[in-house]
Amino acid sequence: MDRDTLAYFLEDLWSKGFKLSDEDVQFIYFGNNSSHAPEWKTIVAVNMTLKVQQSFDPSFFISILELISNPSITSKRKAYESIEQQLSIARTTRN
User: CA-CA distances (angstroms) from residue 78 to 64, 72, 75?
Assistant: First the structure.
């Protein structure tokens, strides 16, 4: 299995003890298919969702995936920078 695939990423999470429910996994694939995003962007969205929310939050995942689905985001670095920028904006508007 290719190490950069969504399936490998989810399997790796499972092996590290992070157990997503079947519904969560189905939702991740649904988000990937409906956004037409490359798998690497879906992996970034799942990764950031788990880091920020400490669990899988479907609405947060979709919002991150929609943000980075923009064709102008062409690398993981740009994706993470875009997410960090949005999170910073969100934090400052709450205060």
Answer: 13, 9, 5
Q: How many CA atoms lie within 13 A of 66 on its CB side?
A: 7
Q: 40: closest CA among 11, 14, 8?
A: 8
Distance CA(1)–CA(57), nearest Å, equals 27
What is the pTM (predicted TM-score) of this model? 0.88
Residue partners of 21: CB distance under 8 A and separation at least 6: 56
Tens digits of residue pLDDT in 56-81: 999 999 999 999 999 999 999 999 99
CB neighbours of 11 closer than 8 A, spacing ≥ 6?
Answer: 1
Residue 63, CA atoms < 13 Å, CB-side half-sphere: 13
Residue 21 CA to residue 42 CA, distance in Å, equals 17
